[in-house]
Amino acid sequence: MTDEEFVSILRSLSLEQLDQLQNNLEVKVQEKKRKIEKRKAAMKVPPRKTSDVEEMADQMGLDLSSLMREISRR
Asked: What's the rounded Cα separation, in Å, for the pair 63 and 12?
């Protein structure tokens, strides 16, 4: 889709539809920011036992080996 096609589609929408689109985008941006902050917070707290490590990996959306690689990078 080119920019021109995208703009054409947006122009065909009513003000209410554009407002709803903007609101939906803002919600998605906020959700993504929260997810990123949650990952950052999970990396700051060191785990104390094996179940904590597994929980930390789940919170970050990683499996254990991916989590270990991420930790070793830091």
From this structure: 44
Query: How far apart, in whole angstroms, are the C-alpha atoms of residue 17 and residue 4?
Result: 19
Walk along the chain (74 residues) and give the pLDDT tens digit of each residue.
Answer: 899 999 999 999 999 999 999 999 999 999 999 998 888 877 776 656 666 777 777 777 777 777 677 777 76
Distance, first Cα to last Cα, the chain: 39
pLDDT on residue 55: 78
Q: Environment class of residue 67 by beta-carbon count within 10 Å: exposed (0-12), middle (13-18) or buried (19+)?
A: buried
Structure tokens at 14: 């009513």
Could you tell me if 60 and 42 are in contact, meaning their C-beta atoms sit under 8 angstroms apart?
yes
CA-CA-CA-CA torsion sign (54, 41, 44, 39): positive
